Amino acid sequence: MAQSFVPQGTSVICTLMTCGAPQEIGITRTAYTIHTKKGQPLLNINDKKLSAAFKCKQPAKFWGGLQALCLGIALAAAVVLTGGLAATVIIAACVVSIAAGSTSIYKMAHDCDVISSSGWLLPHETVYIENAKALLNQSQISCSKGGLINIIMDPVIAKEAAEKISNNNTKEALAQMGSMFAIGFISVYTAGATFATAAAFVSVAMYTPGEWIGENTPNPVAGNLASNAATDLASTAATKGGSGVIKDVAVGVGENVANNSIQNMTKGAAQYGVGVATESVEMSLEGAIRYTIGKNRFKFSMDKVGVGGLVANILIGTASDYYENHLAGETIDASDKFNIKDQSNGINVIAQTANI
Q1: Which terminal CB of the chain, N or C, has fewer other CB atoms within 10 Å?
Q2: 299-302 long-range CB contacts below 8 Å, 24 or more apart?
């Protein structure tokens, strides 16, 4: 199939974009080969300059989720705690929330800087423009943040694609923020006044590794299980109390490694994972309950309210994961369809052999 060469100013989209409009690709060199009709240079694999950032969904989800988690913690602390302790927890949560929000804004504006170190895929293998392989409308960049940047020659198709992808990615970010707000509130509220501070601390401490694993594990089942298990551990650890949350968690695990209840935990985690994979809420819930029973026998002290909060958090996290993964899959499919729809478009300078 014939492929068009690409002039500066051509639209590009990214599967992680939230900005709502396509950006344009431009040169990062001095250009001499000009497409006279458009008055723009033709691009090669060295050209990676974007007209503006795509506002990546990854920092929006990660930092926005942390911001929402802290707001949920602050609200629960206002309900559960009183006096100076309440003020301390609320202020600390709000400070982290504000910092997370500011970081999210900065990262969304600058994460696209990384494409300068990424390479174009599917250029022309035999045609060179100014000593570098020519770009074609099939060319792509696989970004280190996880997105795929595609060239869309038709501005109308590019606008439609950008709106669809941005809408899906924004919904993902909002789902993440909503679920984390609920989890933050439930974790602290169900811990009660005695362990609310510990619950707040551990929830925030466990958010980073849990969400990092969830976002960076190729297998979505393993990723979701790891992410939800981290939040689950936060709730459990908070109820342990005593001489220090982290110390007690370590002691509790150390004392009970040989306990047969670890079989319940292992089977429950596996069953929960299968439930996620098959989208069976019943199986996920049964696995979560089995996991909880095993963990209670691990000598972590949890009352009915604590168990209820733990299961609620698992269900909220799982439901959000289902929804976010569905949107992410839909986004990839939509990007592919728009790419195929655009393949016959381009300028009147084409490569008769695409590849190449």
Answers
A1: N
A2: 299/252, 299/255, 299/256, 300/236, 300/237, 300/239, 300/240, 300/252, 301/239, 301/240, 301/241, 302/236, 302/239
Closest of 144, 138, 129 to residue 12, by C-alpha: 138
Q: Which of 52, 30, 53, 38 is nearest to 8 (CA)?
A: 38
* CA proximity to 75, closest of 188, 175, 194, 205: 188
Q: CA-to-CA distance for 304 and 318, rounded, in angstroms?
A: 21
**How far, in whole angstroms, is CA 235 from its chain's centroid?**
22
Q: What is the largest distance, in Å, between two alpha-carbon atoms of the chain?
A: 77
Residue 172, CA atoms < 13 Å, CB-side half-sphere: 28
**CA dihedral sign of residues 179, 180, 183, 184:** negative
pLDDT tens for each residue of 106-125:
999 888 888 888 899 999 98
For the stretch 265-313, pLDDT in tens is 566 666 665 665 565 656 666 666 666 555 555 444 445 555 667 777 7
Tell me the backbone φ, ψ of residue 153, rounded to 5 degrees.
-75, -35
User: Which residues, at least 6 apart from 65, have a Cβ–Cβ distance to it below 8 Å?
Assistant: 176, 177, 179, 180, 207, 211
Cα separation, 152 vs 339, whole angstroms: 7
Burial class for 132, CB neighbours closer than 10 Å (0-12, 13-18, 19+): middle
C-alpha Rg value of the chain to the nearest Å? 25
For 27-69, write each residue's pLDDT tens digit.
877 766 666 566 788 899 999 999 999 999 998 998 999 999 9
